[in-house]
Amino acid sequence: MELAILISGRGSNLGAILGAVREKRLDARVRVVVSNxxxxxxxxxxxxxxxxxxxxxxxxxxxxxxxxxxxVALLRERGVDTVALAGFDRLVTGVFLRAFPGxxxxxxxxxxxxxxxxxxxRQALDYGARIAGVTVHFVDEQMDHGPIIAQAAVPVLDDDxxxxxxxxxxxxxxxxxPLALQRLARGELRVVGRRVIGGLP
Length: 201
Ligand code: GRF
Prior knowledge:
Layout: E1 2-7, H1 12-22, E2 29-35, H2 42-48, E3 53-55, H3 64-77, E4 82-85, H4 94-99, E5 104-108, H5 120-127, E6 131-138, E7 148-155, H6 162-185, E8 190-192, E9 195-197
Parallel strand pairs: 1-2, 1-4, 2-3, 4-5
Antiparallel strand pairs: 5-6, 6-7, 8-9
Helix pairs in contact: 1-6
């Protein structure tokens, strides 16, 4: 699997994926790490791991589709066939998704379809949820939406803060994102309607 990882920030999921590749738990080559923000800490992580990086600033393009067309051109040039969004804070358009059909994944810190969008952990706390969780899913044109490949649940504790809950959730993201990608790499996932056959757990 020829993977690109798209980030906007610190890149802890990127780190988990790179670790899985290094330890041969994930049969993939990371062709490039792309950020839409030059300040993304994850770029340093990638460089330290000897992985190629690129910065494509969304502000330099007239709109989402023009930006996505540039992203597609860059990824094609690097021989990419699969894309993992890992804290990438832009919505991708059909221009992007049609270039990599069924090969774009995302991780979200909630049990979708609950708590889409920003600050999902705070949303779960504010709602009073007793169980929170994380989701890895195929990406479609709606935000935090698409066939679900993997989910993991964690308890919400009485004394949780947004930070403590986020930390517990992040550990689960780091665990299940590489597992989901490995299922894809091995050709074990099949989408039937809205359902993914071969997902986990
Ligand atoms: C994660 O919580 C992910 O689920 C969300 O953005 C955050 C990115 O964190 N989409 P990191 O950059 O991977 O550390």
